[in-house]
Structures are given as C-alpha cells and as structure tokens.
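Page 37, top half.
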Amino acid sequence: MTMQPVAPPHLLTVAEYLAIGEIEFGYSELAEGRLVMSPSPTADHNRAAFRLGCQLEPQCPPGTEVNFDLDIDLQLAPADAPGTVRQPDMIVVRHDARQRLRREGGVVRASELLLVVEILSPGSRRIDCESKRFEYADAGIQHYWLIEPTEPVSLTACHLAGEFGYQDAGPVTGTFTTAEPFPAVIHLDELI
C-alpha cells in the first residue's frame, strides 16, 4: 500500500510545498500557502500545448527554451511566509534556469521567465483568466498568453503595463504575429 503525502495543517512555504513531493492524482499548485489540486488535462489540451511548443521553440531567441509543466515560484512572499507555486502549461525560460535547477534543485523562478502560457480548459478557466492573470502580473512576468483550444482556436496575448497589471488587445484567431517578448508567428488553427 502506497502512502499519500500529507500536507501540514498550516499554510505552506514554498520549501514545505516542495518537500511534499509529487501528488499521485492530478497535479498540485500552491496558492498563498494552500495546496490546490487540478484535474489532469484532456488530450486536446495536451495536443495544443505540444503543437504550440513545436511552433514556438524554433522562434525562441538564443539562450532560451520552451518547457512544459514546470513548477514556478512566483516569489510573491518571503521564503518563510506562505508561498505561491504555479505550474503553467508552457513557459519560455532562459536556458541558464534549467542549468541552475540541475545544480541546485528547487523550481524555476518567476524572474527567469520570458513568457507563460496557459491552455484554457473547463476546470481551470476562471483560475487561468483571473487568479493566475493577477498573480503572474504581481510576479513581474512580462508576457502571459491564454490559448482557447476550441474552434476557432484563439490566443490572447497579455503584456505587463506597470501598475495596471496585464493589458491585452483581445483574442486573435487564425495567425498570431508578435514582436514581444520576441518575434514569433503562431498558426493557431494548427494547434488542434
């Protein structure tokens, strides 16, 4: 019989969350010290993330890379306070962040990210569009993309606008072209 990890009966720091380890059913995140479980993604969700990564990776600037489902310490609280760790569907991160993880362990830091991407699904839509939008902005992540994987597939590109948080021009369908955080062209209809 396998024992499931048990969270302490208090709000967790990032270090305490990481000490719990992997949770067998679904995946977990840490929101202001509270353990949050999310359902496993659907096949369409996973396919959209994979296809987006295939399009985006060759367009990434030198010294950066695409990664999937990695824990991100949003660095919103001191190390001894209840923390927030999110697991975006996809990130573009500096290559040296993965090298640091290999040497030191831990998780990716918000300060190491160029881009965070969430693929919307019924079980996470509100969290992705509201909670994470505010948290990622508070963490100083400059660019946040939201992908709606139902036809017509759309992408909403949010950019940090100082004290106003994220601003966006609304969803784009067909082909998404951007210069920020680096020049890229994404063919959205090819994601599903």
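Page 37, bottom half:
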Amino acid sequence: MTMNASAILDLPEPTFSPAVARATEPIRQRLEGVVPAIEWPVHAAYIEAINRLKRERNAIVLGHNYMTPEIFHGVADLVGDSLSLARMAAETEADVIVLAGVHFMAETAKLMNPSKTVLIPDLGAGCSLSESITAEDVRRLRQQHPGVPVVTYVNTSAEVKAETDVCCTSANAVQVVESLGVDRVIFLPDAYLGRYVASKTSVEVILWDGTCIVHERFTGAEMRGLRASHPGLAIVAHPECPPDVLAEADFVGSTSGMIRFVGDTRPNQVMLVTECSMSDNVAVEYPDVEFIRPCNLCPYMKKITLPAIYESLRTLQHPIEIDAAVAQRARRAVERMLEVGRDRNN
C-alpha cells in the first residue's frame, strides 16, 4: 500500500529491529569485512528505511564511486563515475532522483531531467574544482582567445557549462578534445587533467589553474615509498593527480577505468590513487585483491550520509533549480559530450 505525502513526513526515526535485520541481511553479508560490525545496526536501519521510501516516491539514488560502502552498496540503484551518472540521469524513468555525490553532479542530473525532481542531500556537498572557476572567467578567456573552443570538465557549475562548447569527463576528455577537429582548445578547469590530456593529443591545450583537493595531495615520492615497502604493488592513478604521480603509475584512468583495470588484471596488491571510499567499494567486488589504502578523503563527498539521504527523500529536500536560459545552454554542452560517446560506440 502506497503511503500518502503526510504519512511519509510523519515517519518515525529509523530504528534497528529483527525485521530490519532480515531485510538487510544480504547487504550485510556483502559488506562484511568492509563495514565494521558495530556500525551495522545504525546503517541497516537507514538502508531499510531509504529503500522503502524509494518505492513510495518512485525514486532512485545515483551513487558516485566515492560514496561510502553503506551508501554505494546499500541504497544506490545506479553507480559509476561522472560520465556514467550523466548517462544514467538522461535515461531514468524515476520521478525523483537523489544524487549521492556532489552539487555539480546533481545539477547535471537536473539538466538532463528538467521535469523531474532532483535532490542533493546536503547543500554543502560542493567541489574544489567547481569553485575554482566562474562563468565570468570563461567569458574572459574567450575574449583572450577568440574563436578557440572551450572544453569544460563536468566538475563545474551549470553557469560555467553554459559558457562552454562541450563538456567532458576524465573518461572521455582526450576523445572530446580530438572530436572538435581543431588545433587549439581551452580546457577547464583542472590543470593536472589538462596536462594529461595534452600529453595524449597533438591539440594545443590552454589550461586553467584549478585542482582537486583530493588528488593534488598525492606525490610521486609517496608512490615510490609505497613501491619500496610493497614489492609488486600495482599503482592505479586518476588523471587529476600531479604529473609526478602519473609518472609512477602502472595505469592512469577515470574511476571506471581504474575499476576495470583491477577486474581485468587482478593484481595481488593495488593502490587506487584517488578518494578513499572507492577502494572500499571495489574491495567488495574483488575480495581476492589486497588494497593498500594510503588515500585522501573528500570532505564534500563525505557530507552525503545515509541520514542525509533519508531526510532528502522524506522531505524532498534540497531540490536543484537552474535558471531556464542557463539550463538550455548548459544542457547542450552536456548533450554534445554524450553524443561523442555515442558516435564512438556506433
């Protein structure tokens, strides 16, 4: 029986019970060894309540790879990197989308679903890259480099995307740049990702000085030290890392590419040079692989919790709204990115 809106708002705080334990037992077994047993009763109560609310709201949770395991494996319906989430957001038939990620991801979901309710569980879930550049900065760069197309990483606000020719993610950045068929591009805002792209193409790349607070803290010296203490260690790095880190890596790729590398090669020991929670999530899939975990937490991603997701679903807070004129232009930049991917698959 479907609950009405007032009944949903009057729901009691989730609590652990034998019924909750039975309903969440398959998830508990899946996360055994990853989520501490002492934490499970609290997590389980919210997991059961969230999954029940999703059915009542005809809602889905899109979960980024950096979510904690109890979110990623417990309540997320669709998971992946920024590119995957953008594609999923464009295809979902749910009435309500809860973005378990950061604000720019929720904006992207709203761009692709203007008539749906898109929620971000915590308005403080921002992004250092997104905050490193404004729409006015992009307009100024266009004036300085007339006629040069702008390729913008999806880790940006809708206002910045609206000033952009095409968006990209770390998974398809090189492909997007080369799809334009030009000699020069402006690439925004991640300087390290831009340098990585420049190393993979003959296109001249004009950079912006933005960085990710998670990836910029890794160093090449740290990687060499880990290799010395863990002979045979496979180092798998995200291209938002500094060049000296990428030079030490056995594989460089997006979060989805990193996961594929682990699945394809099954190294004895591996370090994922990215946000901490991703190692926990991948370890669930590959228990035979030992994950070495010197990693950095993203304080923005960690604002998304099970209680925050529950409250977001219960009260429909915090809805994403984008100015219609901005949304129309930003949507086109995202759609062009997705078209590049479709062209590659055909």
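Margin note: The mean pLDDT is 93.
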